[in-house]
Amino acid sequence: MIEFEGVVKTYEGHREALSGVNFRLAPGEMAFLTGHSGAGKSTLLRLILGLEKSSSGIVRVAGSDLSTLSGEKLARYRRRVGVVFQDPNLEDDLSVYDNVALPLRISGFSESEIPKRVRAALSRVDLSDQANASPRFLSGGQQQRVGIARAIVHRPALLVADEPTGNLDPELSARVMRMFTQFQQLGVTILVATHERAVVDSLPFRRLVIEKGRLVSDGMGSR
Amino acid sequence: MARWILDHLQAIKDAWRRTADRLTQFMVVVCLLGILLAIPGWLAQIWLSMASLVPEEVVQSEAIVFLNKELDVEARIDLERVLSEMKEIEQVIFVAKNVALKELSAQDGLGPIADLQANNPLPDALRLKFSIRALKKTENNIIANLLADKRVLSLRYFPSTRVQYSSLVEKLGLLGVALSGLAVLGVAMAVFLVAAADVVDDQRRIELYTLLGASKSFIRRPYLYRATWLGILSGFIACLVIISLNELLSADFVTNLKALDSRLEHLPVDARTLVGVATAAILASWVGAERAVNRRLSALH
User: Fold this and answer.
1) Which residues fall within 8 angstroms of residue A89, CB to CB, at 6 or more apart?
2) Which chain B residues have a beta carbon less than 8 Å from that of A108?
3) Which helix H or strand E contains B214, and what residues bound it?
4) Distance between CA A78 and CA A154 in Å, rounded?
């Protein structure tokens, strides 16, 4: 699903943010991307999301070389990816329902299809009863779950999460990770960037450890 | 309902939400842009309304071209055709020598003089009416060419007042056009800055929409709707300012205007000015916002 071949990313006037990164994530696989702040995790995610282009090397997702995509093609690619942020990035002016429906509206789903999908996504994150609420009246954990529902509502083949448990207490973090595990079991490829050791240690998934822009370790974790 | 209609309705709702959130700022910008746009509008209004009051002969030059007596009909028709085809000449009228003699005789009160009619000393002539847009230089060129033409015996040229004072008129015109251009550019820049500030405020939202796969047009739609409203409202304010100025200032001219035409109570407001100002307001707002949003989106996409 995701292939990095000798990927280098250099920002003008700065050192290399990524240096010759190679890895491959199979469809339906779940992996953690770990490392300290500034190690290059966010850069790697930005490359996967097509927000940056690599300076050299190839970033391929679902068979598409991302450096060749631009404009509408890149937008179409992003519609097949779900993104979860540390800060859920919800629109306060929209209800929970409308926030979750956003990717569907952007992707051009019909109005008859949207309610079914939104209800299903909210039910997956146990927020069916909050559909009409405003996100500003929800707790941090609930907001994060709305963000997750928004990321999976269009049934993406790839889910990318950037520090999804960064603002949550351990109990909520565990709950969110359980959700990711369930999505992985449904065949979704998941890459979770986190620097929280407890989260990574709690689950037996692959770990990609990045330090100073280099992939220094790639192996399976254990509980 | 079609998806694109729903998307546009959503964009209109978003634009309204954004406007309502910053209503005071929006109204201040509308008034400032309206006043700014009223400057070229008011200049155009003076120009057009005065032009509608000024008699045509003042702005339209004329020439009487006396033709050589031996000129045959074909050569005369050829000259007439060449002159008619010039875009600077609006009308070519052939004045036959017997018609000219009759008119002259009638004017002089001499009545028909058999002797003159039998041996008409006048040449045939062409009466040229220049276009009201013809430039002084072009008119002079045409006159010089005619004087050098062997088919022409002589000519009399009556330059319009506009042509006589053309350098002054041109300078004033250029000043007006430059002021108008600056005002429209100012509006575009002001809207650019307002839209750019909106985009910076909404950077988080724009990044989110980008990550969710929204196309550029989807993201920029609310900003363009907002800019269009800004343009429509500032254009409306500009029209109100122009009409008010017109009402206010033409009161001072009433006496003079009445001397020109008893029906005139004030300078008539020319609809072209209002349409022009409103169109310029909408276009400048739209272009300003489009550039600002595009610049930000290009950096992101």
Assistant:
1) A147, B204, B208
2) 3
3) none
4) 11
SS3 assignment, position A31: strand
- Cα–Cα distance between B15 and B293 in angstroms, integer? 14
**What would the two tokens of residue B121 be?**
């000393």
Asked if A71's CB is within 8 angstroms of B216's CB, the reply is yes
Element spanning B110, H or E: none
Measure CB to CB from residue A103 to each of B3, B212, B300 and give the nearest one.
B212
Distance CA B64, CA B156 (A): 5
Optimal mutation site among A52, A53, A91, interface B, most CBs of chain B within 10 A: A91
CA distance B53 to A163: 74
Indicate the residue of B1, B211, B213 with minimum beta-carbon distance to A76: B213
Contact A57, A5 (CB under 8 A): yes
Could you tell me if the ipTM is greater than 0.90?
Answer: no
Sorted by where each starts, the structural domains of chain B and their CATH numbers stand as: 3-55+166-300 (no CATH), 61-159 (3.30.70.3040)
pLDDT tens, N- to C-terminus, chain A (223 residues): 888 898 888 887 777 888 888 889 889 889 999 988 888 888 899 899 888 888 889 888 888 888 888 788 888 889 889 988 888 888 888 899 999 999 998 888 888 889 999 998 898 888 888 888 999 999 888 898 899 899 888 888 899 998 888 777 787 788 888 888 888 888 889 999 988 887 788 888 889 899 888 888 887 765 5
What is the distance in angstroms between the Cα of B163 and the nearest Cα belonging to chain A? 55
Tell whether A79 is within 8 A of chain B (Cβ).
Answer: yes
User: What is the enclosing helix (H) or strand (E) of B112?
Assistant: none
A113 in reach of chain B (CB within 8 A): no
Beta carbons of A108 and B214 less than 8 Å apart = no
Selecting from A49, A81, A106 the residue whose C-beta is nearest the C-beta of B214 gives A106
**Residue whose tokens read 């009160």:** B109
d(CA B23, CA B29): 10
Q: How many CB atoms lie within 10 A of CB B120?
A: 14
What is the DSSP secondary structure assignment for residue B221, as one 8-state letter? H
**Cα(A148)–Cα(A143) distance, integer angstroms:** 9
CB B75 within 8 A of CB B82: no
Chain B nearest-CA residue for A45: B211
Report yes or no: B208 at the A interface, CB cutoff 8 Å.
yes
Phi-psi region of A20 (alpha: psi -120 to 50; beta: other; left: phi over 0): left
Q: Do A89 and B10 touch (CB under 8 A)?
A: no
Classify domain A2-80+156-218 at the CATH topology level: Rossmann fold (3.40.50)
Chain A residues with CB under 8 Å of B2 CB are: none
